[in-house]
Design goal:
With 290 residues, this protein is α+β, with helices and mostly antiparallel strands. The chain is 34% helix and 18% strand. The chain starts with 30 loop residues before the first helix and ends in a 13-residue tail after the last helix.
Length: 290
C-alpha cells in the first residue's frame, strides 16, 4: 500500500511527494523501494502489487522501474485502507482464486530483514491452510503512544509461541499511562498494520462487514484488468467512504489472529517518532540520517 498522502514529514513531504517516496535512511533508497526489495526475498516480483493514487504513478515507476504494468493498481481517490485492500483482493482473485495475500504499508522501518522474511513466510504458510485474518504483532519494548495495541487471548505472554494467537481486543494509540499498563501486562503487541490472509477470506469478511464498500465493486469480475478498469474505479471511488481495514473488518471479524513478529519495526508518523528511532550523534541528542 503506497497511496498515503502523508505530510507528517514537512517540509520534506509535499502533496506530490509523500513520505513513502522519501529517503529516510543511509541506504539511498526510498521507503517504498526498501519495502519492495524486502518483499522480493519472499515473493516473486511478478506477484507483487503496488496500490497507490493515480497521481503518484510516475513516482512509483521511478522508484520501481521493474514493476510490471499490470501490477500497479491506481486508485482515483484516497479512501483509506479498506477500499485499497478490497481493490487488491478482487484483482488477485481474478488472477488466482486460491491466492494468499500479504498486505504491508510502504513506509515502515524494519531493522532485521531476515527475521521479517522468516515471520512473513510462516504467516503465509499458515494462512494458506486456515481461514484466518492474521496481523503481524510486534513485541513492545516501551510504552509508545504512537502505535495501536492488540491484546491476545490466553493471558500474560501467551504470544510466546510460534503460531498465531487469537485476538482479544484492539486499542488505537493509548495515552502514556494506559500504554504503560499494556506493557506491564504482557498481553499486548503493537499493531504493525501488516496483514496476511487468503484473498477469498478477506473478500468474504469485507462483504460481510462493509457492504457499503464492496457493493461499489459490483462488476469487478469483468472490469478489473480490462480497458474498463479506470472508468469503473472512477465511478466506484466517487461514492466510496473513507474507512480503515481495522475499523471495517479487523475489530468486527470473528477470525482475527495475531502472529508474533520476530523483528523490530517502526511505523513512523512524524518527526518526533522518527527521532526516537535513529541513533544520536552526540551528547546533546543531535541525530542525522544523511
Amino acid at each position: 500500500m503506497a497511496g498515503g498522502g502523508g505530510t507528517m514529514f514537512w517540509p520534506l513531504c509535499r502533496r506530490d511527494r509523500p513520505q513513502q517516496f522519501l529517503n529516510l535512511s543511509r541506504l539511498g533508497k526510498s521507503l517504498l523501494r526498501q519495502t519492495y526489495e524486502r518483499l522480493t526475498g519472499i515473493i516473486p516480483h511478478e506477484n507483487i502489487l503496488v496500490v497507490t493514487l493515480a497521481r503518484y504513478a510516475d513516482a512509483v515507476r521511478a522508484d520501481i522501474p521493474e514493476l510490471q504494468d499490470g501490477n500497479l493498481l491506481l486508485e482515483p481517490y484516497g479512501r483509506n485502507t479498506a477500499p485499497c485492500i478490497a481493490y487488491a483482493a478482487y484483482t488477485l482473485l481474478k488472477r488466482d482464486p486460491e491466492a494468499v495475500m500479504a498486505v504491508t504499508p510502504a513506509d515502515n522501518l524494519i531493522d532485521d530483514e531476515a527475521a521479517y522474511c522468516d515471520t512473513l513466510r510462516e504467516a503465509l504458510d499458515y494462512a494458506a491452510t486456515h481461514q484466518a485474518l492474521i496481523t503481524l504483532g510486534v513485541v513492545p519494548d516501551r510504552p509508545d503512544t504512537h502505535f495501536g495495541y492488540i491484546q491476545v487471548q490466553g493471558g500474560k505472554k501467551a504470544w510466546e509461541q510460534t503460531r498465531p494467537v487469537k485476538v482479544k481486543t484492539f486499542t488505537e494509540k493509548p495515552d502514556e499511562k494506559l500504554a504503560e499498563v499494556f506493557l506491564r501486562s504482557g498481553e499486548f503487541l503493537w499493531n504493525s498494520g501488516i496483514f496476511v490472509w487468503q484473498a477469498r477470506t478477506i473478500r468474504e469478511e469485507l462483504e460481510r462487514h462493509v457492504p457499503s464498500v464492496t457493493h461499489l465493486f459490483d462488476g469487478w469480475e469483468e472490469a478489473l484488468g480490462s480497458q474498463k478498469e479506470e472508468r469503473f474505479l472512477e465511478k466506484a471511488y466517487m461514492n466510496m467512504e473513507r474507512i480503515s481495514i481495522d475499523y471495517a473488518v479487523m475489530e468486527n471479524t470473528e477470525i482475527d489472529w495475531i502472529f508474533p513478529a520476530a523483528f523490530r519495526w517502526a511505523d513512523i508518523k512524524d518527526w518526533e517518532a522518527f527521532y526516537s528511532l535513529i541513533a544520536k550523534t552526540d551528547a546533546e541528542g543531535n541525530a542525522s540520517f544523511a
